[in-house]
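Async update (no meeting this week)

Hi team, since we skipped the sync, here's where things stand on the single-chain job. The sequence we agreed to prioritize is pasted below, unchanged from the tracker. I ran it this morning and attached the output directly underneath so nobody has to dig for it. Comments welcome in thread, and please keep replies under the output.
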Amino acid sequence: MIFEQLFDKTSSTYTYLISSGSGREALIIDPVLEHVDVYINLLNKLNLKLVKVIDTHIHADHITGMSELKDKTNCETIMGDKTPADVVSIKVKDQEMITLDNLKIRALYTPGHTYESFSFFMQDRVFTGDTLLINGTGRTDFQNGNPYDSYNSIFNILLKLPNQTKVYPAHDYNGKFFSTIEKEKNNNPRLQVKTADEYADIMNNLNLPDPKLMDIAIPRNLKLGAK
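Output:
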């Protein structure tokens, strides 16, 4: 399997490229518009054909590269079926399988950071978007986010995955590349709570500033990054 993790320094966004092997089909998760040419060059270098691109949710801190990748490669665009983005090619339901050659990726509806957030589970790893971060969790104070939904998505869905499942989030701000479900259970400070109310109290008192690009990124990302 080919697996590449790429990083956007401006928004601290991780993008993932996946393929079953050289000369085969490829999939990209959470692309950033400014790096589309980097992805295209990497695809060419690895002799891969991009057939699918996924956004875990409507991002507020960067503009997605989905639309431009579709224009340049004719790939399918995929999001969860709760997305308000009408121009997406395929809307997957909770537990629906996405296939890529012999690889299978399961869509998991994990709202909380935003009401339409999805995670994607593949073999030994899960791409959690902003739902579950490394030693943190995605804020819940805009885009119809909800701390109780976040608690449910994390504790009753993601943390029920096998302990050794690798956690690959859409962002990290501290130079970490991945974690595991077990490490997050044991070490994530926001998860050391006994009740949903206790978790909600933490999330409701973060008092974080809005993302700088929020007013630009959200409208653009509703169109998959197109102007």
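Quick observations from my side:
The CA atoms of residues 151 and 196 lie 6 Å apart.
The chain has one domain: 2-207.
Reply here if anything looks off.
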